[in-house]
């Protein structure tokens, strides 16, 4: 505690000191002889911590701005799935606003806060250290950038799959704002408001206030009563203050916000006759399918309460030759969640999870030029987090009215801490006409500690330090202003750690080691037909080493008879192709499309498992299983068409997204080989944790008009109009039971909004 009290003001002071001490670092920048022509279709991105045109950035990146989101009637980060090549985002209801993220087949689907995601979500420059809180609302968004491939050099930590970089709007310094209300199927009501107000006469100090509310009854039905299940009520509110004195090169943006969520983390029953729990539940609840049956549930009521305040301070000081930036982030959350994990009407496995999490981060970086042909970004990064989980379990309780806090006198308590420091640099050198070399790297040092106890008795404790330098190098060639070719090699690193679900001292005290990805990429970006068509292509190959996977092992002393540990399980090879385009054949019509292709396979994925014949631990070979969240194809095609009218404008949007089938858990679909002594070959993942092919059709029609000088719009929308039903998440639990969750079925509604 004392160390945290010291470090927090030090972090703030460091950011301020770096900014105000900057004049000694400043360099004279040569004036530009002639202003560059501005392309009205150009999208400016900050993928490399610099402001660059999307088509001039030698990175596989997709940018989505506010107008695109508004025209699509997009609701949250999950609406990006399928619309970006090789991107998957699904909601994980075992944690509040939790997301399972996968880019180019790299993912780690887990809600435990001691384990970081492989895809980083960065909001206003702050890396979110857990999957909880990543399922983000789209209102008040300026732009979203999806960077594919390892991005550890410049973005936070543990971003071996990629980064989703979210930038919200900044206070304008003028009075104005927007308000909207939406109502749709499943009694879904959303109200959102953003208001800007000036705090000074010259507009140099402004504030922005926002409040978002979203509630729904859910799309599940309780079999016994016919009532709706899966309700959610989400509140997100806060404010920002921007100080940007006129005539000054300094600005500071402070944001304070809070998210409050209450929801029903309902699960569907996927238990079959091969599992123990099937012998205790009614026959109608056993052997169900993982598509249409998912929408009927049998379990007991659950509720999750989540409260998460956060604060961000960003300061910029532009000295002409050098721009200094400091970003300080703080997030804290508390969760109290009950969940009937077995999903049956029989009280077999019901838990209450109490969690606390807090993270601090500080980044300081400098960006500038050594010369007209050599620019740089360098910086320092600090991250710390602490986490506590107390889980009360009611196992074979047959006592649905008894709170797990009373039933379980030996709760599991997990405490975890992380401290990370890093130094990084990224450089561009235009070493010849039309040629540029990009290179850089990041040195990261992570220290982690975790202890695990049951009923106040510690069963294991571990502490370890992990270090890694991850380089990146690339080259790009521009034969003319409309074409760019590039190639790169980058390395991604994800820290090691300790297993939060370990049930024995041996498992709790032994660290799994870091995983590393080497990614090779070549691509091209093309502006065609007088820049009316933008077409991008990328091919990549990733070598994934020492990857982390959860494994279920026999544990006689554990409440469920098994334990889940994380370990390094071999390697994987992933290769793929990506295409995306934007075409503007007329000023009224915009057509977009994307295609992502993946081919992935394990190598040397051998772990210990339980022999079904002798009960002894023997080698299990999972090398033939599919990697999770790895569809072989994702594709999208969409169109926006606008028509001017006497009263304003009408905009129609129609899109189609295709997502190939994918598995959600490394599991056992079948066994072959020597079942007594091993090795035993696993013949694929359990089909119950497999998502079928998806074809999602979305449409919206928006009318814009004036009301007394105020811009108003009315949008009628529909999502998943083909009513493609199936799972988003499936899980099998060591031969005991299985459960899953369902994706949103067909829904529709209307939104009325005003801007002033």
TrEMBL record:
Keyword entries, A-Z: Cell outer membrane, Ion transport, Iron, Iron transport, Membrane, Receptor, Signal, TonB box, Transmembrane, Transmembrane beta strand, Transport
Main localisation: membrane
GO cellular component term, pick one: cell outer membrane
Subcellular location(s) of the protein: Cell outer membrane
Signal peptide: 1-26
TonB-dependent receptor-like beta-barrel domain segment(s): 287-721
Membrane topology: Multi-pass membrane protein
Record-level GO BP terms: iron ion transport
Protein family according to the UniProt entry: Belongs to the TonB-dependent receptor family.
Protein name: TonB-dependent receptor
Annotated organism of origin: Sphingobium terrigena
């Amino acid at each position: 505690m004392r160390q945290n009290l010291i470090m927090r003001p030090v972090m703030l002071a460091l950011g301020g000191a770096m900014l105000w001490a900057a004049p000694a670092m400043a360099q004279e920048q040569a004036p530009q002889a002639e202003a560059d022509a501005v392309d009205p279709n150009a999208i400016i991105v900050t993928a490399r911590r610099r402001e660059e045109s999307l088509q001039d950035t030698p990175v596989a990146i997709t940018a989505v701005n506010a107008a695109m989101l508004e025209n699509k009637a997009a609701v949250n980060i999950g609406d990006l799935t399928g619309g970006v090549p090789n991107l998957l985002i699904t909601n994980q209801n075992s944690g509040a606003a939790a997301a399972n993220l996968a880019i180019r087949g790299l993912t780690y689907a887990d809600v435990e806060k001691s384990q970081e995601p492989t895809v980083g979500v960065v909001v206003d420059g702050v890396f979110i250290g857990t999957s909880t809180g990543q399922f983000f609302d789209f209102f008040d968004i300026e732009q979203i950038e999806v960077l594919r491939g390892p991005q550890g050099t410049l973005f936070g930590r543990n971003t071996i799959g990629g980064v989703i970089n979210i930038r919200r709007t900044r206070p304008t310094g003028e009075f104005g704002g927007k308000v909207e209300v939406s109502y749709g199927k499943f009694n879904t009501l959303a109200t959102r408001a953003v208001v800007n107000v000036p705090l000074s006469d010259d507009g140099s100090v402004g504030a922005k206030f926002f409040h978002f509310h979203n509630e729904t009854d859910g799309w599940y039905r309780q079999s016994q009563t016919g009532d709706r299940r899966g309700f959610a009520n989400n509140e997100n509110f806060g404010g920002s203050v921007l100080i940007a004195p006129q005539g000054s090169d300094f600005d500071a943006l402070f944001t304070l916000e809070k998210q409050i969520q209450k929801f029903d983390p309902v699960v569907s029953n996927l238990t079959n006759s091969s599992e123990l729990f099937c012998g205790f539940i009614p026959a109608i609840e056993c052997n169900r399918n993982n598509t249409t049956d998912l929408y009927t549930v049998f379990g007991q009521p659950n509720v999750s309460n989540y409260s998460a305040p956060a604060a961000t301070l960003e300061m910029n000081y532009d000295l002409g030759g050098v721009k200094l930036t400091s970003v300080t982030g703080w997030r804290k959350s508390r969760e109290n969640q009950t969940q009937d994990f077995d999903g049956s009407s029989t009280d077999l496995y019901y838990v209450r999870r109490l969690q606390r999490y807090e993270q601090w981060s500080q980044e300081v970086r400098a960006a500038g030029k050594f010369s007209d042909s050599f620019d740089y970004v360098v910086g320092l990064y600090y991250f710390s987090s602490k986490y506590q989980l107390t889980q009360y379990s009611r196992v074979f309780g047959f006592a649905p009215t008894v709170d797990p806090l009373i039933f379980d006198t030996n709760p599991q308590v997990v405490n975890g801490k992380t401290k990370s420091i890093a130094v990084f640099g990224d450089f561009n050198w235009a070493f010849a006409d039309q040629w540029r070399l990009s290179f850089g790297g990041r040195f990261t040092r992570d220290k982690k500690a975790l202890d695990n106890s049951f009923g106040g008795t510690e069963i294991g404790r571990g502490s370890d330090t992990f270090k890694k330098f991850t380089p990146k190098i690339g080259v790009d060639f521009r034969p003319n202003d409309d074409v760019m070719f590039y190639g790169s090699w980058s390395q991604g690193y994800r820290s090691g750690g300790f297993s939060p679900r370990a049930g024995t001292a041996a498992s709790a005290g032994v660290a799994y080691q870091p995983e590393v990805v080497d990614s090779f990429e070549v691509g091209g970006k093309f502006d065609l037909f007088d820049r009316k068509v933008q077409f991008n292509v990328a091919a990549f190959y990733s070598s994934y080493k020492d990857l982390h996977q959860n494994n279920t092992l026999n544990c006689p002393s554990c409440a469920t008879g098994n334990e889940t540990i994380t370990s390094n399980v071999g390697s994987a090879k992933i290769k793929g192709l990506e295409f995306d385009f934007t075409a503007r054949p007329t000023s009224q019509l915009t057509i977009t499309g994307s295609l992502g292709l993946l081919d992935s396979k394990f190598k040397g994925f051998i772990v210990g498992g339980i022999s079904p014949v002798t009960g002894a631990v023997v080698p299990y070979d999972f090398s033939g299983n599919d990697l999770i969240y790895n569809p072989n194809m994702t594709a999208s095609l969409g169109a926006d068409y606008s028509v001017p009218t006497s009263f304003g404008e009408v905009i129609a949007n129609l899109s189609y997204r295709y997502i190939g089938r994918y598995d959600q858990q490394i599991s056992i679909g079948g066994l072959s080989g020597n079942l007594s002594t091993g090795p035993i070959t696993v013949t694929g993942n359990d089909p119950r944790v497999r998502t079928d092919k998806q074809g999602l059709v979305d449409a919206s029609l928006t009318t814009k008009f004036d009301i007394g000088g105020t811009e108003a719009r009315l949008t009628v929308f529909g999502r998943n109009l083909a009513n493609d039903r199936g799972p988003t998440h499936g899980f099998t639990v060591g031969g005991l039971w299985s459960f899953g969750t369902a994706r949103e079925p067909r829904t529709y509604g209307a939104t009325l909004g005003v801007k002033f």
